[in-house]
């Protein structure tokens, strides 16, 4: 579970971060809303702990910036404001839950657990590699939150590659699984290559990190290319 913490008060932020890591969550810190948005563009998070009062764009403005995205994290909004009107503003803006400062850390954890529990059934049908997110059920695909439209066959190819993430998928495997063609016929290789080329173009063209790798003479591999 990946959690993004957007909180400008260093002490509170560090305490939350240490606490989340101690609980086994992978936590990333952003000190401003804009920094938080940059992290959200880089990779998918399951949940965001978002402070309302931030320098620059505040928590509500961040929620508004996320509103039209297809993939967004669950949001637990932190705030010192505690009137009914404030809660309504926060929830209307898209927060999934609301926690009033100061809070006990145990309560923060309980809220996070409750929010994540709500999403578990969908979790199984959603797979992520780097900033690629695939919803198996609705057959939709996104990179960095941006939807990519695939043909049914391209989608099947992608799912097969995902099931073998980091391993080579050979042309015969593709022929057998996607085209149900057990005999390796030369013409099919060309068909596979054309579909792979289309899929690669849609997923990787213009992206800094390429996901589909060609293993010369063997097949293909889906893997997050790491830049160090
Ligand atoms: Ca603050």
Secondary structure: elements and pairs:
Layout: E1 2-6, H1 10-22, E2 26-30, H2 33-42, E3 47-51, H3 59-66, E4 74-79, H4 84-92, E5 97-100, H5 105-123, E6 126-129, E7 132-135, E8 140-143, E9 146-148, H6 152-163, E10 169-170, H7 171-177, H8 186-204, E11 212-215, E12 219-222
Parallel strand pairs: 1-2, 1-3, 3-4, 4-5
Antiparallel strand pairs: 6-7, 7-8, 8-9, 10-12, 11-12
Helix pairs in contact: 2-3, 6-8
The structure holds calcium ion.
- Give the count of structural domains: 2
Strand order of the largest sheet: 2-1-3-4-5
At the first level of CATH, the class of the largest domain is Alpha Beta
CATH topology of the largest domain: Rossmann fold
Write up this protein.
The protein has 228 residues and is of the alpha/beta class. It folds into two domains: 116 residues, Response regulator (Rossmann fold), CATH 3.40.50.2300; 98 residues, Orthogonal Bundle (Arc Repressor Mutant, subunit A). It has eight helices and twelve strands. Helix 4 links the parallel strand 4 and strand 5. The longest helix has 19 residues. It binds calcium ion. Calcium ion (CA) binds next to loops.
In short:
This protein is an alpha/beta fold and 228 residues long. It folds into 2 domains: 2-117, Response regulator (Rossmann fold); 125-222, Winged helix-like DNA-binding domain superfamily/Winged helix DNA-binding domain (Arc Repressor Mutant, subunit A).
């Amino acid at each position: 579970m990946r959690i993004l913490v957007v909180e400008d008060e260093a002490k509170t932020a560090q305490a939350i971060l240490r606490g989340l890591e101690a609980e086994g969550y992978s936590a990333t810190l952003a000190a401003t809303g804009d920094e938080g948005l940059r992290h959200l563009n880089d990779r998918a998070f399951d949940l965001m702990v978002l402070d309302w009062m931030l320098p620059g764009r505040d928590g509500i403005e961040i929620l508004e910036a996320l509103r039209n995205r297809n993939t967004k994290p669950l949001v637990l909004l932190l705030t010192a404001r505690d009137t009914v009107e404030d809660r309504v503003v926060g929830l209307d803006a898209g927060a999934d839950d609301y926690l009033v400062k100061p809070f006990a850390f145990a309560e923060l954890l309980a809220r996070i657990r409750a929010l994540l529990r709500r999403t578990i059934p969908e979790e199984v049908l959603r797979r992520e590699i780097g900033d690629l997110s695939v919803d198996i059920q609705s057959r939709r695909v996104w990179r960095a939150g941006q939807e990519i439209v695939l043909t049914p066959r391209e989608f099947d190819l992608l799912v097969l590659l995902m099931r073998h993430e980091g391993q080579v998928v050979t042309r015969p495997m593709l022929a057998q699984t996607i085209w149900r063609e057990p005999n390796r016929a030369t013409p099919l290789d060309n068909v596979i290559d054309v579909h792979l080329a289309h899929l690669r173009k849609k997923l990787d063209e213009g992206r800094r990190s390429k996901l589909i790798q060609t293993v010369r003479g063997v097949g293909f591999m889906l893997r997050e290319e790491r830049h160090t």
